[in-house]
């Protein structure tokens, strides 16, 4: 069997039915004789290819396969690969390379790719022969899943694909370790006077909401959302839920200082932005941290870390915690607060109104992809997240991820509706993904919160250098016709300039079962940041 | 026709009487100020323009053989014996909504005056005490608070509209919720009576009084209320158990604004008069100068409709129209 054929068999062996890519001449050997059982999803720019695969891998909870074009393709993909690495998303990245027989003369498409790829990968490798290719892919598959998870890159000189393939024994690896020390931790939690929990992204990634709610109710303690988390780790309408921690260290310490024991479950402890001077001392509070990511633990702000699956950890803790009788307040007033705020801001198309109206119109099971930047905090407060796997955002603030990720998530989860809420600025880093969305008729509702520029950067300028905003260039983006952009790529669109537009267009968008883009002219007021 | 017009005791009686003479030219008008004067005049009266200050009893109605129409120059008809009027085929009408804005403003004034120690600090200053520290320890914003409106009729709705810009959360309870679209536009959330009392920082009563509602706000409701919350009653005194109110004012409430008392004026030993955290007004929430004019105009318009054989508005008794 030649390597071209063997690669396709290898894909099918791992039940990989979708490959994301953007080809060049070095990828033609990879693409010829493509089997019908595997979809090749073409993205029109490599950052979009990788972000689609990222969304797909996260939503399917399996490594996704990406095919990139040598140094130009890898170059474009670098930012998105960095995001995937930071997201801990398992990707097998194949990168085409010139025929090995003329590397020595540095032909047109040649690049010394391994060093680049290594900076954005958990593992990267250029096979030294044709026989080496399938074993390298097999290893990449396991390297990508190795905790914490991330891209694993294999560089494929095009001539190797014509050689004879060799199979190596396939392996199944269960990386979900049971963390040690749960007995002690349960004792600490049982003895705590005022415990609190912080739920991070791994709770969602491991489908462990039930365990998180169980633990919170057994302890009858407040639960915070991890700051700047890429997932929602706890139902945001649960009576014990306190909202997301402010992502500055002094704010985190202040919010958690009333508690003697704080347990951070999953994700980094803590992700912060921007820098605010102040002490990083905890006072009386003792912080404990469980994560399957050794790196998160190594740089954690916690006094003690436990490495392993957060789901298994919480399941174990639940058997050892002496449950309290939670006295949960019957009705939440959140909804009422948001309803009043929405009505108040309706005339101005204010953020509270726009997000409330978006929330009221989205079906209960919707998956939300958030690249709404200055609106993100409000979005996580106002929209209802009552089921796990309903919220995705890039963990490193990289823009241009959202539209593509939404496409990947919708491909992986055809049974659920997907909504991408993106800033006008953010959307323009990844507009090409509208084409893929239209080609595959993915019924995604795309909401552009259009405030004509980089509002969050204006807010930051105002607070760092008060009064200097008028003389700061590069923060305004006007004159983009989003509806025509969408239509040019085959996506229906409309512009919502006032509340009645917004209300009927949202209804239209959700009922259409086709991709639909709304250009929402949200109030361009510059919110106070610090 | 013979008119009897009861005017409230005010400095403007003469002016108002003159105006009436003009508007109802060609008719005989008796202007009265007291119940005795009214009783005397009713014997030959066809149309009575009544106000809540002077009751219209069964005896009054029975001793008015020509009486056909009672127009109340006000929003309530509790002072009229409606049964007797019905028996005699007399039409009774009132004015609706003319005071809603005034009451709504009064509630907001009271809320703000209680959230900041307005009365006390004004008194202190006049007594020569510059008590900034105590002001700073007490003065609160309305913004961010949860405001509960019990009764979502005209006044409740006018109040809600005016409160929304204060950046408050609005809850309400009523027998009938508003349609969802209305709620959404006004930022109002319907909640149970229990939740209204548990969840609100300020509660204002705007429900009509019926006998089942006697002392409907009692010890149980006060115990559900938040510490440091406020009760405002501009509706009817009988809605609130006064003893429970006194206890709550002593133990948990920040304050109360009371515009309606079971006996008006209150006896000098009414314990409410001694409470430092109560704001009292003489049943005047709905009778600003502007409201009085609106009420007078609406009443006169109804009388003119009656004289013209057109249907009258806000009929409580009779009137097939
Ligand atoms: C790839 C990339 N380039 C630049 C930035 C810097 N950046 C952060 S926020 C932002 C502006 C976002 O504007 P928009 O999406 O319209 O959201 P808004 O703040 O206006 O709501 C930019 C450019 C980034 N995060 N990622
Ligand atoms: Mg913007």
Automatic annotation (TrEMBL), chain A:
Keyword Glycoprotein found? no
The entry's keywords: Thiamine pyrophosphate
Q: Which InterPro entries is this protein grouped with?
A: DHS-like_NAD/FAD-binding_dom, THDP-binding, Thiamin_PyroP_enz_cen_dom, Thiamin_PyroP_enz_TPP-bd_dom, TPP_enz, TPP_enzyme_TPP-bd
Report the leader peptide range.
none
Per UniProt, residues of the Thiamine pyrophosphate enzyme N-terminal TPP-binding domain are 1-101
One Pfam family linked to the record: TPP_enzyme_N
Q: Write down the superkingdom of origin.
A: Bacteria
Q: The Thiamine pyrophosphate enzyme TPP-binding domain covers which part of the protein?
A: 375-520
Q: Which GO terms describe its molecular function?
A: acetolactate synthase activity; flavin adenine dinucleotide binding; magnesium ion binding; thiamine pyrophosphate binding
- Ranges for domain Thiamine pyrophosphate enzyme central: 183-316
Report the CDD domains cross-referenced here: TPP_BFDC, TPP_PYR_POX_like
Q: Which family does it belong to?
A: Belongs to the TPP enzyme family.
Q: What is this protein called?
A: Benzoylformate decarboxylase
